[in-house]
Predict the 3D structure of the following.
Amino acid sequence: MRASAYAHGLLLTFLTAIFLSWSPSAFGQEGLVLWNRLGSQQEVENSAVGLNGSFAGGSFVPGVSGNAFRADHSQDLSVTFPYQVVPTGAGTIEFWAKLEGMPTNIPWGQNPYFIEIGDGSSGYGMGFNGNDGGGGGGICGSAGDHYMCSTGVYTQTYSYESLLGSGQVERWHHYALVWDENNLPGLGQKVAVYLNGQLQPQRWHDYRNNGFPPMTGGELGLINFQQLTQGAVAIDELKIWDHARIPEPGLVLWNTLGSQAEVENSIVGLNGSFAGGSFVPGVSGNAFRADHSQNLSVTFPYQVIPTGAGTIEFWAKLEGMPTDIPWGNNPYFIEIGDGSSGYAMGFNGNDGGGGGGICGSAGNHYMCSTGSYLQTYTYEGLLGSGQVELWHHYVLAWDENNLPGLGQKVAVYLNGQLQPQRWHDYRNNGFPPMTGGELGLINFQQLTQGAVAIDELKIWDHARVPSPELTLKTENMVAGSTGQVLVDHASPGGTVGIGYSLIGGGQSSVLVGCGWITANLSLPVQVLGTYTADGNGFVSVDVDLPAFSGGRPVWFQALDFNTCTVSNSVFVIID
């Protein structure tokens, strides 16, 4: 049974339309308690989400995303937030940080803590220490009434390089302090610290074991140098959540691709190299962009490619492409090869194995494509009418033991949908481990026009066969009749919002429940309404179109509140 709703004259009868923005008041916070960009005094004092901070000194320097707050050793706790930002019972505090001019070793009591707050009964902190007061040392964290974790015991000798890696001390790293009074999944402990998405080898100590009393006072302060007389710390993109956010197992690489600093500092996995290109607004923050003269200007070491089974996923957006897809003059998003194994995904009129369209390959020439090279392909035919220059989600998945339900070893997904595919095991020699080369982003293969942007690159050590992506389409958009807006693949029984713009389909940063997203709707974004999906994740909305609305353009997009994901955007002109 389809969930349905009836919207009377909402599109064009402006005075009676529901003018709601996609805002916290409309959508709730979905667990994000605080998000502060920390890029200027104005940003500190005006959080993107949650309570505002206070600024008493320090400076601002280039960060992971925009600018970052920097304090030297004489500027303790000069950015603070009200104690109410710290959740009770379960939560996550995450941020990026970068050290400067530290000593070699980490002594007792003379080293930086990134965050700290205490009111006598509860306290939360994370940083470096030779002895955290509970018998631990290294990277240390605490939550609640003295639930503590650390790299190891205080009797060891710790250096910044031993904890952060050789040559990595003065680079950006991602830190997370997580806690749950009911124990963290899979750990049997109540508090843990993650560095670049990886759980740190830890010693746990329940110093008082008195639970997680709510905070009743104090301030959450950034950067306490604890009597250190040298160095500085920069911190960026502070977020606090009301639940424990544990990284999903199997993530080999996660790079947000939003700046040269982000390329060169992966959240998870090996860092990338940057040799050119630019950065533009992406799906989340900024994205890497290369034009047709900038082939493979972002690369990663070959060791990021898993053997036997894996997934490479990302968002990408085309600009200025020709209409047709010829042989060899078209963009590949990713590629790597060492002579015995290779992995690639992109567009081609002929992929060298008899296929064409959206093409993928893995291992020793296991290949898939939309169809045969004898067909004629266009970007619009593959991506949809009016969809060529919008963001799309791409996945290359492989498994030497065959992908679930396919009986094939490699497949390509577009926006969560398995592509109609031709498979060809060109050599059928398995999946030898990569022994050389680099994973490069965006090879235009002699194309002499256009550009490609790519965002949120992730690689997994297993085949992640996607669930279908949230999709929107319209039917019967004729003046004087009742049109339909149809949304599929939403969370079953979940809440779906449908937004529209009468201005255009340009990218807009919109604040929704889980933070800022990029919507393909020009401001002001209007909300047609919120609806409950049926058990199959389907929503049908009837829209009464006035007789005088013919020729009027409208842009639509849907939002799944449960997953905080947006659908494709659809442009229609009312007949």
